[in-house]
């Protein structure tokens, strides 16, 4: 449910692709940071098997976890370049004219 009345889909082509892009970037950055941290902290003998299977699990699970956040993040990014317009707002039942 959208409390403020602002639509997440702003009616342009490619909005879904932009949200997917932010989602994949977030998942890849999480994988890279975790991989680098584990290698650095266990350097004499890193657990390569754990890194291999943990990396696969991270890349499968992380996009599902980050997807709702990536839509909101892409909306914020889009608002930086294209400010809010009146057609971006949805009308609630209380705003409808009464007969």
Instruction: Tell me the helix content.
Output: 55-70%
Question: Based on DSSP secondary structure assignment, what is the total number of beta strands?
Answer: 0
Instruction: State the distance separating the first and last CA atoms.
Output: 26 Å
Question: What spatial form do the alpha-carbon principal axes imply?
Answer: elongated
Mean pLDDT comes to 83
Order of helices and strands: HH
Number of helices: 2
**Could you give a short account of the major beta sheet?**
none
The radius of gyration is 20 Å
**Unreliable parts:** none
Please identify the structural class as seen in this structure: mainly alpha
Strand proportion, as a percent range, falls in under 5%
Topology:
Blueprint: H1 15-41, H2 48-81
What would you say this structure looks like, in words?
The protein has two helices and no strands. The chain is mainly α. Helix 1 runs antiparallel to helix 2 (48-81).
Provide a concise account of the structure shown.
This protein has about 100 residues and is mainly alpha-helical. It has two helices and no strands. About 5% of the residues are buried.
């Amino acid at each position: 449910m959208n409390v403020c009345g602002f639509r997440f889909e702003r009616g342009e082509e490619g909005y879904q692709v932009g949200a997917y892009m932010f989602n994949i970037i977030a998942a890849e950055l999480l994988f890279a940071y975790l991989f680098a941290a584990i290698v650095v902290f266990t350097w004499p003998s890193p657990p390569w098997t754990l890194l291999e299977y943990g990396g696969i699990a991270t890349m499968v699970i992380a996009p599902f976890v980050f997807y709702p956040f990536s839509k909101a993040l892409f909306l914020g990014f889009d608002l930086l370049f294209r400010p809010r317009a009146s057609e971006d707002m949805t009308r609630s039942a209380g705003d409808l004219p009464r007969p």
